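Example for tutorial group B:
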């Protein structure tokens, strides 16, 4: 159990909540801010658990790996499975697999966490000279030089090089 249940505080909406099967919650700014959990988060998750409602967490911030997010949530008192953390990197991987199955080697302009998640998905992260595709995400070390290299490589790929 995550915390004290507050189902009684749902009031007249309690019956509506009983029809909900699953919720997807954004993380930063919704369940915590920075590294600080909101006071309402654990009781809310306990209520969902009591009502038999599953939950996943969603983030468009790919600056950390999925494993990093799982660890951060655990440090805040929320134990989750890795598959309960859905990231923008997942959408990228799904698009590559579904629309571009021939892609195997990817030049990633992104953090080491993003690169790790792309590698964990079965792709090879390579330098731009050996890539099939260029993926750009949040990158704390991105500079004009790297951006130009990625743009030039992407242009060459579009020409069939």
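The residue assignment follows.
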């Amino acid at each position: 159990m995550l915390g004290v249940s507050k189902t009684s505080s749902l009031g007249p909406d309690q019956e509506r909540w009983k029809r909900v099967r699953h919720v997807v919650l954004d993380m930063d700014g919704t369940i915590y801010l920075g590294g600080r959990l909101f006071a309402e988060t654990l009781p809310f998750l306990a209520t969902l658990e009591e009502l038999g409602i599953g939950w996943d967490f969603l983030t468009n911030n790919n600056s950390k790996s999925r494993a990093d997010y799982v660890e951060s949530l655990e440090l805040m008192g929320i134990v989750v499975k890795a598959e309960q953390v859905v990231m923008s990197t997942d959408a990228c991987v799904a698009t590559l697999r579904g629309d571009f199955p021939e892609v195997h080697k990817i030049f990633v302009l992104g953090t080491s966490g993003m690169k790790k998640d792309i590698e964990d998905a079965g792709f090879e992260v390579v330098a731009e000279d050996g890539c099939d595709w260029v993926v750009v995400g949040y990158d704390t070390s991105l500079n004009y030089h790297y951006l130009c290299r990625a743009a030039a490589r992407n242009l060459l790929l579009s020409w069939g090089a």
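The radius of gyration is 20 Å. Compare this with the pattern of hydrophobic and polar residues in the output above.
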